[in-house]
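seq as requested:
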Amino acid sequence: MTTMENSRTKPGSDQASSGWGALLRGRNGVLCLALAGGVMLHAINVYVTITILPSVVEDIGGAAYYAWNTTLFILASIVGSAVSSNILARLGPRTGYRLAILVFLSGAAICAVAPNMPVLLTGRAIQGLGGGILFALSYAMIRIVFDEHLWPRAMAIVSSMWGAATLAGPALGGVFAEFDMWRGAFWGLLIVGAPYLLLTERILPKKDAKRTDMTAVAWLQICFLTLTVMLISVGSLSSALAINLVGLAAAAILIAALIFMERRRTLRLLPRGSFDPGGSLSILYAVMALLVIGMQTEIFVPYFLQAMHDLSPLVAGYLAALMAAGWAISAILFSGLNGPGARRAVMLGPMIVTLALLALVVVLPAVSPADDIGLFMIAAGLTAVGFGIGLAWPHLLARVLVVAPKDEEDKASSGITTLQLFATALGAALAGLVANANGFDGSGTVAGAKDAAFWLFASFALAPAMATILSILVARDMKMAKNSPQTNESRRLRSESNPTARP
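struct tokens:
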């Protein structure tokens, strides 16, 4: 195995430029494939599972736990991401990747043979743990294997794997679901994962030449995050409104306790000021969390499209992925805006998401299976949800880095991922609660699906609506801010290197 020093581009060599060729040629290209492959494996699994879940429920039951597949996966991903830096420091890149991949693939194997929903959920949690480690390692490894001038392009390639997964995930899941072979989708992940493991064993360095230090993990806050989401999920299993409300109330108490701990403890998940009432950072994080929560309606979209519109799993999966596609497209198109354009993007993004969800409240339950125009309207609405988030997201990221305390910019950056994952898990749990309380039972009945769809999209439109109000404050803060050009430029480059990423 060549040494770490030999694996990186040397100044003065023909690869010393910061162009795409320097990143994609020779050994750098193989390293880029290895890092991007980790995110791709994690991301494609998300869309595979969303696509096949209706078939899974039809086969092994467990409709009440439908949303738990996403909730447990994301919660475990939070834990995996939290411990990834320590795994890298203790085990090194090659062994760390080996551990992450084997954990992920073992979870996929459990899912593939699951006889019932509890076993499947166990596999999903194990998948999430391995996937979270893999996801975080892929970003952490960029600074280890590439020279600094290649970091922005490497980040862009790794982040773009989410967009690629929106194409491959529904295809893989949809084909197997079409032939009533949903288990094959998980076996497919194993087939892809095995050669990927061999690739990382071959190309990744055994040790980190820069040495990643062990870091303390805010386990108490992570436990509170997990308990918050699980209380909502457990409450959603009951049809009694009182129990649903008790679960929500208990979750609210835990969130309040979490905020108290974050404001008082030295070891924190988010930087100082993240929970100051009316503070710039707290408003930014609130807008981002509300947008992500609003998007979690997507986990039920394949089921609604199959139950109400008689679409095939393949087509339903691709339509559900339009949210993610819209996010990626708009983030790429509008991430270069600055000044007034960036402020307008921050305000318009949440507004578009709100209007799109409200439009889906009307068209999703009303369209008949043979109505092509109606299906086009559904597709447009789903795309618009992601488009609105992607329009605002890069500028929200950039603003977080600008307003974060000077000595906690790294914590602010990593906090974005933590917040995004938590908002995803929380949104999935809330989606399960709303759907279960309004007719969702997995039986495939049109009436139950229509009621669940109506109330799910109507209630979740409240999240981006609140974000729309808060975004006005963000835009006003952006207008009033006076930052040095050098600071703006350095932070802009950091934020634009990852404009499309999502959990």
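The chain is about 75% helix and 0% strand.
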